[in-house]
């Protein structure tokens, strides 16, 4: 294994997963009328080309905020992938019925996503408790997880309710710390997030760090997460790298938005380097965990391939 900047040879283990990707094709699956931005087409065919180039065998399709609770594109993708994928869907816990949940489960859904960050939603402690309990009750019979996209400081508000929910909880993008508020180790929510990881009460995705690339202490933060929770981290590309609401051209949510230009091979190499630094040597045991073994457990995938 070369240095963090030597990315000529990145060889992922057989059966590698990408645990966080989105697909969108508004010509086939129209966006929700109140979509927060308009991403350009990035469909399943594009995703499969991307994954072939990286050596990814399996993927988890994650609900795109532009579709709200319409999971049609994900269901179509899962059908086309023939059982070799999983999905995180978006539901309305108040209106979805058991038959609809079972249909999503049979197709490959294994979690729901609560995306508060994209829309800038911030709840108080009671609000998080109500939201998490309401959703946990609907998905617990299926054994699904709740995936949360919030900022790191919000983890401090929801940490108390997580252990009692009775369902797995996943924190997106290693908690999404805020580079504007100084070193991550001094930020609100950092201690609570580390405690939840240390006690095995949450999972997290090693993904999306380009959203906070100038964060002070990022390398130490990732190494700490990998050290204290090696069995609770899954790797993800966050493809196709949407810019989100902040990148709306001229503030207009209806102008098609370009995707961020991300060097994904360099991202893989950087994550491998972190694994080497934490484990020592080639880092292959930890690499296999976050790309293969942990993902298979989290997404309840027990096929032989």
Automatic annotation (TrEMBL):
<dbReference type="GO" id="GO:0016787">
    <property type="term" value="F:hydrolase activity"/>
</dbReference>
<feature type="domain" description="Amidohydrolase-related">
    <location>
        <begin position="18"/>
        <end position="299"/>
    </location>
</feature>
<dbReference type="InterPro" id="IPR052358">
    <property type="entry name" value="Aro_Compnd_Degr_Hydrolases"/>
</dbReference>
<dbReference type="Pfam" id="PF04909">
    <property type="entry name" value="Amidohydro_2"/>
</dbReference>
<dbReference type="InterPro" id="IPR032466">
    <property type="entry name" value="Metal_Hydrolase"/>
</dbReference>
<dbReference type="InterPro" id="IPR006680">
    <property type="entry name" value="Amidohydro-rel"/>
</dbReference>
<protein>
    <submittedName>
        <fullName>Amidohydrolase 2</fullName>
    </submittedName>
</protein>
């Amino acid at each position: 294994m070369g240095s963090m900047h030597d990315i000529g040879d990145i060889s992922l283990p057989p059966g590698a997963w990408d645990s966080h990707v989105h697909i969108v094709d508004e010509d086939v699956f129209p966006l929700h009328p109140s979509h927060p931005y308009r991403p350009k087409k990035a469909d399943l065919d594009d995703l499969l080309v991307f994954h072939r180039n990286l050596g990814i065998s399996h993927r988890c399709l994650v609900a795109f905020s532009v579709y709200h609770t319409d999971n049609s594109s994900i269901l179509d993708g899962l059908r086309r992938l023939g059982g070799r994928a999983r999905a995180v869907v978006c539901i309305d816990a108040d209106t979805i019925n058991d038959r609809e949940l079972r249909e999503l489960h049979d197709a490959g859904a294994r979690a729901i996503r609560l995306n508060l960050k994209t829309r800038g939603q911030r709840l108080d402690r009671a609000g998080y408790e109500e939201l998490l309990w309401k959703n946990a009750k609907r998905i617990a019979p299926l054994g699904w997880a709740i995936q949360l996209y919030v900022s790191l400081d919000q983890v401090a508000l929801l940490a108390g309710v997580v252990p009692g929910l009775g369902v797995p909880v996943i924190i997106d993008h290693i908690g999404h710390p805020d580079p504007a508020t100084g070193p991550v180790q001094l930020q609100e929510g950092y201690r609570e997030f580390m405690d939840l990881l240390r006690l095995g009460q949450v999972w997290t995705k090693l993904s999306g760090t380009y959203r906070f690339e100038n964060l002070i202490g990022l390398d130490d933060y990732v190494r700490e997460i990998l050290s204290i929770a090696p069995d609770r981290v899954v790797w993800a590309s966050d493809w196709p790298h949407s810019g989100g609401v902040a990148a709306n051209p001229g503030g207009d949510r209806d102008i098609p938005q370009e995707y961020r230009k991300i060097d994904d091979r360099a991202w893989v190499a950087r994550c491998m380097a972190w694994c080497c630094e934490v484990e020592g040597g080639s880092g292959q045991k930890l690499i296999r965990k976050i790309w293969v073994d942990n993902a298979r457990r989290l997404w309840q995938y027990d096929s032989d391939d």
